[in-house]
Design brief:
Blueprint lengths: L5 E4 L2 E4 L2 E4 L11 E6 L6 H14 L4 E5 L7 E6 L4 E5 L15 E5 L6 H5 L2 H37 L6 H16 L11 E5 L1 E4 L2 E4 L1 H5 L4 E6 L6 H14 L4 E5 L7 E6 L4 E5 L13 E4 L6 H4 L3 H36 L5 H22 L5
Parallel strand pairs: 1-5, 4-7, 4-8, 9-13, 12-15, 12-16
Antiparallel strand pairs: 2-3, 5-6, 6-7, 10-11, 13-14, 14-15
């Protein structure tokens, strides 16, 4: 039996708008089964999901690992596409309410496995540390808002000064659409569009799982270029084409600016358009189509603005680093909060619940006649 493939992404992110959630995109409302996990912050849920995720991989099932942006080594959710089963962490700031309780979703409350009386004895530090975590995130999101303003300034030098060859970019958009879709139409009516993040702003800075998302694909179009040189416009045009022509699509949004599209994946074509620029540079493979929007910048005309561009870039880097520092501080405080809970948790009972849940998931696969590997 071959081991299943892991695909990594983020269902939520620290953005200039605050925490942005795509948790409603992990599974469809009519999924076969969704286990909604409730507990305290980082207390039992990540290890619960990790054990099930790796157990399913070992049994040959492909599994989506939805990582946490605020603690990138822990999980916020799992999804097993072949059997349409998900597990989702429903603790703040991504509280999930069942849409079809009992019929689809089932709540597993891991708080049942802590000693309530002993947990009440740590009431004061829990309240104080929870307040401190909110303070850190408020500061982080404030600096991300400032970083977005600086990035807007950086990008505006290209759009506002007339140095971009807009006609050339429009021709490039058509070339990319032709290379991606080759005149085909999708077979899904209505098509499903999933919106997620491939990159997250984490305590360690930007991290991504693009290699697991676009690495296995047969057709990849990579777009590079400086901020403001038209990459987002090209992605928007390709995404609009996919939406209008019946293709299921995975739309991966910018970690800082979630209304912006960074990457588009069309599963039925095994194809993607990828923004290959910091902080998510993708090394080209043989057969990739590679384009740079810098080719459409009038270098002589932009030269007079290079000093101002450098100033905006410097301010962006300063504010972005400050935001990451506060996200890192929030993780330190969150770890301290978790440590107050750990002595009061019955991990043996929790492990038994985890094994029971795994067996139920395997039973779902058996009933569906889905073979592993």
């Amino acid at each position: 039996m071959s081991r299943g493939k892991m695909k990594g992404m983020y269902p939520g992110n620290n953005t200039y708008q605050g925490f942005h959630s795509f948790f409603n995109q992990i599974v469809a409302p009519d999924a076969n089964k969704v286990f909604i996990l409730e507990s305290g912050p980082g207390i039992g849920i990540p290890s619960f999901m990790r054990k099930i995720g790796y157990a399913m991989l070992d049994r040959g099932f492909d599994v989506e690992f939805h990582w946490c942006s605020s603690d990138p080594n822990t999980l916020d959710a799992l999804y097993i596409p072949s059997i349409d089963v998900g597990l989702i962490d429903a603790t703040a700031p991504h509280v999930i309410e069942p849409k079809n309780p009992g019929a689809v979703e089932e709540i597993i409350h891991l708080g049942d496995y802590w000693d309530e009386e002993k947990v009440r004895s740590i009431r004061k530090p829990v309240i104080e540390l929870t307040r401190e975590i909110k303070h850190c995130f408020d500061r982080a999101h404030g600096y991300l808002k400032a970083a977005k303003i600086c990035l807007d300034q950086w990008e505006s030098f290209y759009a506002a000064t007339g140095v971009l060859d807009v006609g050339g970019l429009n021709e490039l958009a058509n070339e990319i659409i032709d290379g991606m879709f080759r005149g085909r139409k999708g077979s899904h009516q209505p098509p499903r569009h999933r919106h997620l993040f491939a990159t997250a702003i984490t305590p360690e800075g930007p991290r991504n799982h693009l290699s697991t998302i676009v690495g296995p694909l047969r057709r990849r179009i990579l777009i590079s270029g400086e901020p403001g040189t038209g990459k987002s416009t090209l992605l928007n045009k390709a995404t609009e084409y996919a939406f209008n022509h019946g293709f299921d699509a995975e739309v991966y949004h910018c970690a800082l600016i979630p209304e912006r599209v960074d990457h588009l994946v069309i599963p039925e074509l095994s194809a993607a358009v990828v923004t290959s620029a910091p902080p998510h540079v993708v090394e080209p493979l043989p057969g990739d189509l590679v384009y740079s929007t810098n080719r459409y910048v009038n270098g002589a005309r932009v030269e007079r603005y290079l000093g101002q561009v450098a100033d905006a870039k410097s301010l962006y880097n300063v504010t972005f680093r400050a935001a990451v520092w506060y996200v890192a501080q929030s993780k330190k405080v969150r770890d301290e909060l978790r440590d107050h809970y750990l002595p009061h948790i019955d991990f043996n009972a929790m492990d038994m619940k985890c094994q029971e849940t795994l067996e139920r998931i395997l039973n779902i696969a058996k009933k569906l006649g889905v073979a592993a590997g």
